[in-house]
Amino acid sequence: MTPDELRQRWAERSGEFSPDYYAHYGPDETSEAIRRHIERTADSEPEPSILELGCSSGRHLAHLHDNGYRNLHGIDVNEEAMTVMRQAYPELAAAGTFYIDAIESVVSAFDDDAFDVVYSVETLQHIHPDNEWVFDELARVAADCLLTVEIEGDADAETPEVNYVDDAVPLYHRRWSRIFSARGFTETASERLDNDTLRLFRRSADVR
Fold this sequence. Notes:
The structure is a single chain. The protein is of the alpha/beta class. It contains 9 helices and 9 strands. It has helices at 3-11, 19-25, 29-42, 59-66, 80-88, 90-95, 103-106, 134-141, 176-181, and strands at 50-53, 72-76, 97-100, 115-121, 142-150, 161-165, 169-173, 185-193, 196-203.
């Protein structure tokens, strides 16, 4: 499957793992874990700028909004995301800045250090191996913190482990500690969340 074909599958997704699906379940323990780590690391900023990659209908951002964060941004490839967000989380939809496009098509336009926090929840696993250059872009636009909540691959694997949704759509499970430590970040916290591993990365002091 090519990168364009993979993006199109998620852009047209309905049913399980669609914007409606995530709005139905709403904020969860992952939402709270993200909020907790952001509070510990980014609250020295009066109004930290936060970007979610693959925000879907916004359940994690809605939890941040409910807890007082206002400088919120999201990217999602599924055009239904904003329609569902306006219905499920109208205050978030009105307050935030959102981009309906592929991550690869958006992040290159951001300035260096554009966001205090950049995070993903089971989203970076959708990045095709041909597009791993986007990890350099994420490191560039994150001023201080990168936070990943992802299903991870084997620690010793040099290439992503490939699993499939619906026996057809690939997911690429990687070791994020390896990927972002090679891009100027240091892992400062981690915790297990069901099938996911949350990892918090801070920009290394000797970088920039």
